[in-house]
Amino acid sequence: VPRHDAALLALDAALPSGAVRTDEASRHAYARDESEAAPVLPDAVVMARSTAQVAAVMEVASAHRVPVTPRAAGTGRTGGATCRAGGLVLAFEAFDRIREVDAEDHVAVVEPGVVLGDLRRAVDAARLFYPPDPSSWAECTVGGNVAENAGGPVAFKYGVTGHYVLGLEVVTASGEVLELGRRTKKGVTGYDLTSLVVGSEGTLGLITRATLHLLPAPEAVRTLLVFLDDEARIADAVGATLRTGIVARCIELLDRHTLAVLRDDGLPIPAEAAAMLLVEVDGSEVAVAIDQERVGNALTDAGALEVRLARSEAERERFWSVRRGMSRALRSRAGNKLSEDVVVPRSKLGALFEACRAISAETGVRMPAYGHAGDGNLHVNFLWDDEEEKPRVDRAIEALFRRTLDLGGTLSGEHGIGVLKAPFIGLEQSPGVIDLSQRIKAQWDPQGILNPGKIFAGPGGRPGHGWC
Amino acid sequence: VPRHDAALLALDAALPSGAVRTDEASRHAYARDESEAAPVLPDAVVMARSTAQVAAVMEVASAHRVPVTPRAAGTGRTGGATCRAGGLVLAFEAFDRIREVDAEDHVAVVEPGVVLGDLRRAVDAARLFYPPDPSSWAECTVGGNVAENAGGPVAFKYGVTGHYVLGLEVVTASGEVLELGRRTKKGVTGYDLTSLVVGSEGTLGLITRATLHLLPAPEAVRTLLVFLDDEARIADAVGATLRTGIVARCIELLDRHTLAVLRDDGLPIPAEAAAMLLVEVDGSEVAVAIDQERVGNALTDAGALEVRLARSEAERERFWSVRRGMSRALRSRAGNKLSEDVVVPRSKLGALFEACRAISAETGVRMPAYGHAGDGNLHVNFLWDDEEEKPRVDRAIEALFRRTLDLGGTLSGEHGIGVLKAPFIGLEQSPGVIDLSQRIKAQWDPQGILNPGKIFAGPGGRPGHGWC
Questions:
Q1: pLDDT digit string (tens) for B157-183?
Q2: Which of A410, A423, A412, A411 has the alpha carbon at shortest distance from A454?
Q3: Cystine design at A158: which of A131, A166, B178, B190 (Cβ 3.0–4.6 Å)?
Q4: How many angstroms away from the CA of B230 is the closest CA of chain A?
Q5: Is ipTM over 0.90?
Q6: How far is B443 from chain A (nearest CA, A)?
Q7: Chain B residue closest in CA terms to A190
Q8: Residue A462: predicted pLDDT
Q9: Phi, psi of B78, rounded to the nearest 5 degrees
């Protein structure tokens, strides 16, 4: 029996009927993710619904040296859920129960395929708050959020996913089940392997359960819509907000091009506006009323064209909904799109905008940007129509990365490295750090079967130990 | 030339005159730390003042396989700064410059020997806030705080040291200098090796620079002194505080025995009080006035004997000063003291108190407790006078650990494992997790020369690769 068939037979024997799918339609359905990474057909798609099933899959995969690409909603932006060397896509979307929302201890325990929006609703119902809010929250899953260390707008005040992960159950490459971390809010027993798995993009272990810390729900949120007449004012406006001493819930930004998307969507944007900030404050009713006024005044003093309060929850939700849909809206405006999520120290936002303008002018590539201004985290998009423009796009991207690093920044604030940024990691990390990281990876996954070709590989992903 | 002498000669050649000390007085001065761990004489004490010097020390140490025990202020509570197998104590106390406090980007960059109190003053002067506040802040250093992932009262609202570490410069066992992490607030490039080093107790690498995230300083703080007539009310009172939905700055607790220390110190404590909470709220002036009232009312409704506001900053500071000195005050009340820092889910605090009472009654060991009630983090102290009582103390400690773990807790909330808790780590972590941790350790330190005998070793510390 060829290795391929032997592995499939073993998987079929270990899993419920229908869990292992080798039909063309299934394979094609799992060949790509939300990113622009080139699709690669897996040899089979395996649906897991329990820790025992995930462990069984990994026992077979390690025995047969089959690469395994974990995947939940596939909403990632760097190709992390696409397989590079065939093998299995291990789908977590049906492993999706909320096991617990403990309103006393402020803890939630969830399976990896739980959709973030579902968790948010369950937590809201307990009058608690799970802050991470990537734009894809209606579709993305908690397992994917943990694997990528997802952020979102309110990360400015509340931090990213990793800040809320107390403990993880993880299945290793060999199928061993490990309990990492804890259920308590504090804990320093042994090495922080939980944080090591957070953001490791499915390359160290497979997350089969997450224990999450919850906060009390803030009583009130106020949303300021802040319009600027020039993108050059963005950095000043962000600085003015920060200097109030009030930690806003978020400080989101839209540049001239992305503001146009809001206009096209019929949102009321002043004609002279060339940039916008969405600033929210939260807390008790009394506190937000005062904070909103102080932040609003500071922004007016900093030269904002107009500062106004969202008139209703419905208006607030309309702005956010268009903001959340920005990535897809931009994609629909060009034949091709690549999106980056670089971060610079906040004081360097102005310099980053200047760099984007210069790179766009030099390469002729359209580069609309939006993002999390408070964190210095900018989503710079690269739009082009014809394939022949691609070399210019590649040049523009590399120029952006180099300038970002010159400014003391980092290549990725929340999307991870995946396949698409893997060629560039050496610009940011030294050979010593990369070598140590890979030696640590080998302790978790000595055969290199867990999500091969991600983070550290060369262009397109180094071939894994595929069975093909 | 014997190995010992060859290493000392090489160190002397590599470092400034006076940096390598082998006199009896120096060796004795660095034989113990603030904990009850048995003192062990190092063969030499080396003072480092720069990254280059630390790297030079590790080059010599790895070439000669000499164990190195890093140490800054020596205020740790689990023996992490005591050497177990001779070799070098590498002292960081003079490597102590604050390199930068950047009020624009809210970042501080410090050397490892900076005293936390000095950093706090520098940050205050910039109207910013570095939250971690272990009781030893007037003496302990940032390097030690990072190595132990120190907490403190305000960790309840603001999180522990690790939440504020953006990046680290680290020297490995072989003397290689690695830059981990970043300067930006967000960043997910590669594995989170920064978080792996945080709390690793000097066993993975030596911290030579820390880049820290700062917050705006809260405008106001209000302190509530809450007296209870029975320790059994503590859990209810904490629950009542949490159910207000207000995230207090801290919720500290003192039991009957530790409250007596405050009384002896002349603080005004009602005669009927048998326990106390120190609850603080912070934020804008307006918000804290309201929050203080809401929390105070909730505590009164929960049956508090008395809830009153600290009358002045001086009164507030008097309470805190006695609270911060509690560990040493208790030590002065008995021949011997061991202090633990177990954590349970908050809802289990009542059960933990019951367990302490039962264990104390059964073993006859005095067990005064205080700690961070909001985090479920209790400092349980074991006091005894005669050496012959020690077996009963050991039994009491093991009983506390087992009960803590039964309640879903963890062995250490902020002190680390060090030497003193190393015999117990197997109660909390599985052989699989410990094995993986040790294999990761071996990637950083293949010869096992960095702080040997800590975290994972058996009683008293497994002998390292000493030169003796």
A1: 999 999 999 999 999 999 999 999 999
A2: A423
A3: A131
A4: 22
A5: yes
A6: 7
A7: B455
A8: 41
A9: -125, 15
